[in-house]
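Lecture notes, continued. The same structure-token format from the folding unit now serves as the input rather than the output. Read the line below as a description of shape only.
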């Protein structure tokens, strides 16, 4: 007879399969209807160059894992022509956008086939990440309750949006969850096998996205915590003469193991993969590109004979490494890290809360999370945070009172020693939760102080951990039943049943939100954010408009034979002239009203309209010809009164038609 535990596990696996199947179906639907988004125009040719030519000259600011996986089936089954003789490939430096345009639209290839086949592997990687979320959650809450964070992650609109694109954002979540699973397994059982698995997982994470190097200081921090856990409880009971030995022995043990994890990751995984993908690139080309890209970084190259300063030392080292065969793979990896560091301090032109600005400030990511996560998800997360905070404060107060009242019973222990013992006990029993919470705090803290505020997608590495932590609190809240008396047990069971019903209602609401948003997952906003059709009033870019609706514009034009020609001002990775040959004219605000040239239809991306028409933040500038002033004079603004900030923010000229969520179409008579 199967045991209850085996039956529970079987039920959980079946439910997990159904969750993953639903997630796959929704992403596949969106992948077939969404046109190429702007970043895919760069990532797709880069990945194809890696797998077909073993050449890493394109898109070095992102590691290769997702791009190479995406393009492998394209290379094996589609066999497109790659523009390896174009000047954008042979002569220009990191001309990823031009090569991408040539590859998709000028080389005689079927662009739709390349994009849609290329999206299969990112979808499967997203499903694998959801499964890993279940495995990580199972460590602390069992197989059944682990379904809650897996469900929230697999069907989260942000995950469904970015999980079906050839981009690196869900790959970053995959790398973080994978690394945490094997690191925590090593902490639980520090065997040689688990050490190697942890190192390999760490290396794989470095190939996913350049936010993953944050795992290095994070693991160092966890190593320090584990070292303190090992020595603090034994410090008082250890002979004074042996305390130094205890101190350094445990320090050396953890420092050595953490260092080995890094070494395994970089030597066994990162170096060989970059060695493979740089093998086909001429070393002279890599060295020239590296020197060019880093030419103005940190004040420019160090003068010969002078000492380097600050970040320029790393730039100079990378340039030197790129000239030598043995070090060129690591030089290419290091170049990507340095490019990301440059970018996050440079900002990006965005529309945010009624203004065009260079960055959103510290409030950007918290606010975007509150506006783009479904309200039932926010209730689960926020209530979980409040409950956990209340329990923690209550426990701390009780323990502090116990320390004060039982000073004599502590046999001379100071309050700090008592707290140290309690800390060690907590870390021993709740290290998994502590680790996840620490990474969320570290990652959010850094993200809120960078200037690269272009989308909630940058929070994806923390979203599965947030869901796991919240689910753990809900499990404790619901399952905590006092069985000391029949009366308390009956009341506890009744309360638990009511909480279950509440949770099921929230999950049902969540599922309906997702289904009603399909397949427009990228543009999803909750009701506080104006909904899927009104979120652009608050923020655009990859939160709302990434160019995903061009195929829908093609269907619209096909369904309206009266449209002979349409002017298109498009922000995205598609090509209107490829999708609608002979019917489109590339347009911009500076070209004036297309009706003056006999073109009576205009389609404009909402991101472009926001940047052109909305007020400028202090210090920002814009050419008068780029403001679409002629269009705003012709059309009254669309009303934003449906949003909680009222009707003045993000108002755009009222369109005659909306294509998908992100293209506004005007009939200019």
């Amino acid at each position: 007879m199967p045991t209850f535990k085996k039956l529970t596990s079987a039920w959980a696996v079946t439910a997990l399969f159904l969750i993953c199947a639903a997630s796959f179906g929704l992403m596949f639907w969106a992948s077939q209807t969404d046109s190429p988004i702007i970043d895919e125009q760069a990532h797709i040719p880069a990945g194809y160059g890696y797998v077909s030519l073993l050449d890493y000259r394109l898109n070095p600011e992102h590691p290769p894992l997702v791009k190479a996986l995406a393009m492998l089936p394209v290379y094996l089954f589609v066999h497109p022509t790659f523009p390896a003789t174009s000047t954008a490939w042979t002569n220009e430096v990191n001309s990823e956008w031009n090569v991408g345009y040539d590859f998709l639209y000028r080389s005689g290839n079927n662009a739709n086939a390349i994009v849609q086949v290329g999206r299969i592997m990112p979808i499967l990687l997203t499903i694998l990440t959801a499964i890993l979320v279940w495995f990580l959650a199972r460590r602390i809450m069992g197989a059944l309750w682990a379904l809650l964070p897996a469900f929230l992650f697999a069907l989260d609109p942000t995950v469904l949006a970015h999980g079906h694109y050839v981009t690196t954002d869900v790959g970053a979540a995959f790398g973080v969850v994978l690394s945490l699973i094997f690191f925590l397994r090593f902490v639980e059982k520090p065997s040689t096998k688990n050490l190697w698995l942890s190192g390999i997982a760490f290396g794989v994470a470095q190939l996913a996205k350049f936010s993953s190097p944050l795992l290095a200081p994070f693991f160092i921090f966890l190593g320090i915590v584990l070292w303190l856990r090992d020595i603090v409880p034994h410090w008082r009971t250890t002979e004074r003469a042996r305390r130094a030995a205890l101190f350094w022995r445990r320090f050396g043990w953890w420092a050595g193991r953490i260092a080995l994890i890094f070494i395994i990751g970089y030597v066994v995984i990162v170096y060989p993969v970059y060695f493979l993908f740089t093998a086909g690139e001429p070393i002279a080309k890599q060295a020239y590109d590296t020197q060019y890209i880093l030419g103005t970084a940190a004040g420019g190259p160090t003068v010969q004979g002078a000492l380097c300063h600050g970040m320029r030392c790393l730039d100079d080292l990378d340039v030197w490494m790129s000239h030598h065969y043995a070090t060129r793979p690591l030089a290419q990896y290091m170049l990507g890290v340095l490019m990301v560091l440059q970018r996050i301090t440079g900002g990006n032109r965005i529309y945010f809360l009624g203004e065009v600005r260079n960055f959103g400030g510290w409030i950007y990511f918290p606010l975007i999370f509150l506006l783009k996560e479904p309200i039932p998800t926010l209730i689960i997360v926020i209530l979980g945070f409040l409950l956990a905070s209340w329990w923690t404060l209550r426990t701390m107060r009780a323990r502090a009172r116990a320390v004060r009242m039982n000073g004599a019973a502590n046999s001379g222990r100071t309050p700090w020693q008592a707290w140290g013992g309690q800390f060690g006990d907590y870390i021993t029993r709740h290290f998994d939760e502590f680790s996840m919470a620490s990474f969320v705090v570290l990652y959010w803290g850094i993200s809120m102080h960078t200037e690269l505020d272009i989308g909630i997608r940058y929070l994806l590495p923390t979203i599965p951990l947030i869901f796991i932590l919240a689910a753990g609190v809900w499990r404790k809240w619901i399952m905590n039943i006092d069985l000391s008396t029949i009366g308390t047990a009956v009341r506890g069971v009744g309360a638990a049943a009511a909480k279950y019903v509440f949770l099921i209602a929230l999950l049902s609401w969540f599922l309906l939100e997702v289904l009603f948003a399909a397949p427009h997952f990228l543009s999803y906003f909750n009701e506080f954010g104006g909904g899927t059709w009104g979120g652009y009033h608050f923020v655009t870019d990859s939160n709302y408009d990434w160019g995903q609706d061009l195929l829908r514009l093609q269907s619209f034009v096909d369904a309206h034979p009266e449209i002979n020609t349409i002017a298109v001002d498009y922000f995205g990775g598609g090509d209107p002239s490829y999708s609608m040959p002979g019917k489109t004219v590339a347009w911009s605000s500076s070209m004036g009203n297309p009706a003056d040239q006999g073109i009576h239809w205009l389609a404009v991306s909402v991101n472009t309209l926001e940047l052109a028409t909305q007020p400028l933040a202090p210090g920002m500038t814009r050419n008068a010809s780029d403001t679409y002033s002629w269009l705003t004079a012709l059309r009254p603004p669309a009303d934003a009164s449906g949003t909680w900030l009222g009707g003045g923010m993000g108002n755009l000229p009222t369109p005659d038609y909306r294509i998908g969520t992100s293209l506004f179409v005007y009939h200019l008579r």
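Point for the exam: The radius of gyration is 27 Å.
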